Predict the structure of MSMEG_0569 family flavin-dependent oxidoreductase.
Amino acid sequence: MPQLTISDGAHYPVVVVGGGQAGLATSWQLTARGLDHVVLEAHRVGSEWRNRRWDSFCLVTPNWQCRLPGFPYDGADPDGFMVRDEIVAYLENYASSYDVPLVEGVRATGLEECAQGYRVSTDHGVLTADQVVLATGPYQRPRVPRMAERLPSTLTQLHSSQYRNPEQLPAGHVLVVGTGQSGSQIAEDLHLAGRKVHLVTGSAPRVARFYRGKDVVAWLDEMGYYAKGIDEFDDVDSVRFRVNHYVTGRDGGRDIDLRKFATEGMRLYGRLIDIAGERLRFAPNLRANLDHADAVCEGIKDSIDAYIDLLGIEAPEQARYRPVWEPEIEEESLTLDGITSVVWSTGFRRDDSWIRVPVFDGRGYPTHHRGVTARPGLYFIGLPWQHTWGSGRFGGVADDAAYLADQIAARRMQTGVRWIAGLPRATKTVA
């Protein structure tokens, strides 16, 4: 794949920071409109998928939802779920499918406004740009609670982004903290490998994999859920910061039922609230967490039933879920006897400290409308629920990229910006 190098002091009409799916989708749309730009990627294309996902990782949405602009999935298994290495290959092939002006191995370290528009500092020099698109994603710094410091130094502690496989961990029981998508799937991975798992639950909801003859994702797509803009919801913040539903695409796709794991020997607990020496304490909310996850799952089925009835669709009937296990007594404490490792599946936090432009709210979240900030020529892409459910995913980022490319083109016309001649530009080399 042709590569680019950059020169210190170069000026670009548009700089895109981040070469993941959001940055590449933006580049494709800019290229389609004839807009000159450069894409800066700190590592390699697909590095987030390559370096922060475990060995058995796979998508939780069907392959047909991989719809990057100009490059929809066209493999032999549209209803399957690509595994980690296939996802990396999909992105690498996408980057090779068009003349992407990509510079790999260049990290942006600072962004501020200047007379030319924006100054982008990197570990390879300083660039300026008329407009900048930030495609750095939401999963930047692993979040581990400070209480982890209280655990004995003899325990192996990993964040979910560092977990690869059960053999990576020492023999003994494993404590997994968190039941979002990563925590639930890692707990299953360990459980299937025969490891004794202690799983600390949270408030994440779950969703069925299949219902009434189709993948639930296919039903929701047909119902228009994924095309619904965030502005159509009554409480934008509650939607934007919603925890993802847990489910898996492993082995062709199936539900993740924590209650079933419990019948097979996995130990479940409520929220972790304290660590004191060799003892962990939990909130008495395990039953509430399980009931909430099931209620959300069944509520989604209710909406599918209503859709089927409204349109008179012929679909097979399916019995509803019945809980296979109930916690008789909620354990509120646990000693570390037998536990040798901890996997913290506690999410990520943003790190925008390098962005020295006033576009953040009191929580440090970028303020924007569909990725367009209040600072002229500065944009975000790839944020969860930036506009729709699919904004941060393979399924919806194309629409966001097209919208931003239109905004970028319109601003160029409004401001009368022309390519600046005589300034050093990127030059092509062969990787």
